[in-house]
Specification:
553 residues; alpha/beta; 3 domains; 6-stranded parallel beta sheet; 3-stranded mixed beta sheet; 9 strands; 50% helix; 8% strand; elongated
C-alpha cells in the first residue's frame, strides 16, 4: 500500500465516521469531535489531490509534518462519553483490522494465612514482583490494545494501585476490548467437569463485577483446550476465545474467525492468532521499529484477495501482556506507537475482537487438536506428566499433580457432606460464592439463595463459610504456574503447596478432619532434580502458623 492509497483509506475512514455520526439522529458528538473529523477529512483530501497532480514531494512533506497523525491522535483522545455515543451506531469495521491481545496475569503471591505478599529480593528495588511489573508494564499499558486482566491480578491492582486499575477498566468502556479469564489460571482440560464450570463462572462473575457488562469472550489459561472445555464455556454463555495456529487441524484462513461445533448443537467462535505472535514475543529485532514492523506486516500478512474484493479481514497477534515493558524493556513504547500511529498509517484499523465479531460473524468451521495449548507441543503434558518443553527431569510434575488431585477428591467428599447440611446444593453455592467471598454482595442475599432455612444458625453458617473458603484455596492449588517451569524447588510450586496447606487448615477448622497426613505422604513422591528437596521439605519450610490452625503432625 503506497502513500496515495493510505490517503484514500484515511479519506474513507473520515467518511465512515461521518456516516456513523449521522446515524445518531442528534447532536450526540461534540463540536470538538466534529472539528477533528472535518480536519481529518480535509487532510486526506489534500494529500489525495496532491498525488493526482503529480506533486508527490509536497504530499510526502505534509505527511511527515503529521497532517493526519495529529488529528487522528486528537480524535482518539476525545472523551470516553463521546466515543461511547459513537460506538452505538458504529457497527461497521475497517477492511484490514488488527488486534494485539495482551494476556495480563499474575498468580496470587499473598501468603494464604496473612493475605500479605512477602518481600521478594529478586524484584529489588521494588518490594515484590507485582510492584515491579506494575511500574514497568501495567501502568504504561493501561489503555493499550485488546486484553484480559487476570482476576487475581485485578484484585491486587484494585487495592494497591487504584488509579492504574481505573484506567484499565475505563479502556474497555468504548472499545469493549476486554475478555474474561478462567479465574485461577487452571489448565482446564486437566480439571474435573465440576471445576471447569467453577473456573469459568468465577471468571465471568469477576468480569461482570469489574467491567459492568456481560463477557462475550474468554481467555483460557495457556490457551489449553479440549472440546469439553469449549462446550462448558458455551453453556455458560461465552461466545469466543483465542487459540494458536497449531491447535487447529487442516488449512484455514488466519484472517477470519471460525466456528467449532460442540455438543447438542452448540458452537463457539475461535480467533486464531498468527505466527507473528512468536516474533513479537521472542525476536527483539522484529519490534525494534514500529513503522518497519507495520510495513513488513502489511506486505507479508495482508490477504490481498480479500483486500481486492473489499472484504473485511481480521489479524490477531497474542502474547503475554508482561512482554510490553517487563520481560522486554521499552516494548510498551513499541505497542503504543504501533497501535496509535504505525498500524493506521499502513491501512490497518485497530479493532476489538468483540466489535469485529459483531460486524462479521463467523461462518466457516474448523476442527481442533485436543487437548492442546499455546506453550506446549505435547498437548498439555507440560502441566501433567512433564515433557521436553522444560529441561531436566519432569517426574515431579506427575507426582505433585497426583498429590493435589487426591487431596481435592478427599476434600470434596467432606465439602459435600458437611456443607450439604447448610446449603441446598453445595456445588451450585460454590459456583456462586465469589461475590460473597469478595464482599460484592451482602451475605443475606447469598444465604437466601442457597441456605437451608432450618439450618441458618450462626454455627452452621460459619462452618459453611469455612468450607467455601477451603474450596477457594483448593482451586488456587491448581494454578498452572506451579507446573509450568522445570523444577519443583521454585516459588511457583511452593505457592500452590501453600494454597493446599491453607485448604487443609480450613477443613480442619470446619470439620476436625485431618487431610494433612495423607497429603504429606503423597508429597514424599515429589522431588527436585536440582536440590533433592521433596514436596514435604517445601511444605515444612512454609511460614510457621499457630499450632491450632493445622492438624498435629
Amino acid at each position: 500500500m503506497n502513500l496515495s492509497e493510505i490517503a484514500q483509506f484515511r479519506q474513507r475512514q473520515a467518511a465512515e465516521e461521518a456516516s456513523a455520526r449521522l446515524a445518531l439522529n442528534g447532536p450526540a458528538i461534540t463540536a470538538s469531535h466534529e472539528a477533528i473529523l472535518a480536519r481529518m477529512e480535509q487532510g486526506a483530501s489534500t494529500l489525495f489531490q496532491l498525488f493526482q497532480q503529480g506533486r508527490s514531494e509536497e504530499a510526502y512533506a505534509l505527511w511527515e509534518a503529521g497532517i493526519l497523525g495529529q488529528e487522528y491522535n486528537q480524535w482518539r483522545e476525545t472523551s470516553m462519553r463521546e466515543q461511547q455515543l459513537l460506538h452505538r451506531t458504529q457497527t461497521s469495521v475497517g477492511l484490514v483490522n488488527i488486534a494485539v491481545h495482551g494476556h495480563f496475569y499474575q498468580p496470587p503471591r499473598e501468603d494464604p494465612f496473612t493475605g500479605m505478599i512477602p518481600q521478594e529480593p529478586g524484584a529489588a528495588p521494588f518490594r515484590n514482583f507485582n510492584e515491579k511489573i506494575t511500574a514497568e508494564c501495567y501502568r504504561p499499558n493501561a489503555e493499550a490494545g485488546n486484553f484480559n486482566l487476570g482476576p487475581t491480578l485485578a484484585c491486587w491492582l484494585e487495592k494497591a494501585h487504584p488509579e492504574v486499575y481505573r484506567r484499565i477498566i475505563e479502556a474497555d468502556r468504548f472499545h469493549h476490548n476486554a475478555l474474561a479469564q478462567g479465574y485461577n489460571h487452571v489448565i482446564l482440560p486437566l480439571a474435573s467437569e465440576r471445576d471447569k464450570r467453577t473456573q469459568i463462572l468465577w471468571g465471568m462473575q469477576d468480569f461482570r463485577h469489574r467491567f459492568g457488562r456481560e463477557p462475550r469472550g474468554m481467555w483460557i489459561a495457556e490457551t489449553a483446550v479440549d472440546i469439553e472445555t469449549l462446550d462448558m464455556m458455551a453453556q455458560c454463555g461465552i461466545q469466543f476465545t483465542l487459540l494458536a495456529p497449531w491447535q487447529v487441524k487442516g488449512t484455514f484462513d488466519l484472517t477470519e474467525p471460525c466456528l467449532v461445533r460442540l455438543k447438542e448443537g452448540r458452537c463457539i467462535t475461535v480467533f486464531i492468532f498468527n505466527d507473528l505472535s512468536g516474533a513479537v514475543s521472542y525476536d527483539d529485532a522484529a519490534t525494534a521499529d514500529a513503522n518497519a514492523f507495520a510495513a513488513s506486516y502489511q506486505r507479508s500478512y495482508l490477504n490481498h484477495d480479500k483486500a481486492g474484493a473489499r472484504v473485511p479481514q481480521m489479524h490477531v497477534i497474542a502474547t503475554d501482556g508482561e512482554l510490553y515493558g517487563h520481560h522486554k524493556p521499552f516494548r510498551d513504547r513499541f505497542l503504543s506507537h504501533f497501535l496509535q500511529r504505525s498500524a493506521p498509517a499502513y491501512g490497518m484499523s485497530p479493532c476489538s475482537l468483540e466489535r469485529y465479531l459483531e460486524a462479521c460473524p463467523a461462518t466457516k468451521e474448523m476442527e481442533l487438536h485436543e487437548p492442546s495449548s499455546w506453550s506446549c507441543m505435547h498437548g498439555v503434558d507440560r502441566w501433567s506428566v512433564g515433557c521436553a518443553c522444560t529441561p531436566g527431569k519432569s517426574h515431579w510434575k506427575d507426582a505433585l499433580r497426583c498429590a493435589l488431585t487426591q487431596l481435592a477428591e478427599r476434600a470434596d467428599v467432606l465439602f459435600e457432606q458437611y456443607a450439604g447440611q447448610t446449603l441446598s446444593d453445595p456445588w451450585v453455592a460454590r459456583d456462586d460464592a465469589l461475590a460473597l467471598r469478595n464482599g460484592w454482595e451482602i451475605p443475606e442475599r447469598f444465604w437466601m439463595r442457597h441456605g437451608l432455612t432450618e439450618r441458618l444458625d450462626v454455627a452452621h453458617i460459619q462452618q459453611a463459610e469455612l468450607l467455601l473458603e477451603a474450596e477457594y484455596w483448593l482451586q488456587c492449588s491448581q494454578t498452572s504456574c506451579g507446573f509450568f517451569f522445570e523444577d519443583l524447588d521454585r516459588i511457583e510450586p511452593v505457592n500452590i503447596i501453600a494454597a493446599a496447606r491453607r485448604a487443609i487448615s480450613l477443613f480442619w477448622l470446619a470439620t476436625g478432619y485431618d487431610l494433612q497426613r495423607r497429603f504429606l505422604k503423597d508429597l514424599e513422591q515429589t522431588r527436585s532434580w536440582r536440590t533433592d528437596r521433596t514436596g514435604v521439605d517445601l511444605y515444612h519450610a512454609l511460614p510457621v502458623v499457630p499450632e491450632n490452625l493445622l492438624p498435629p503432625q
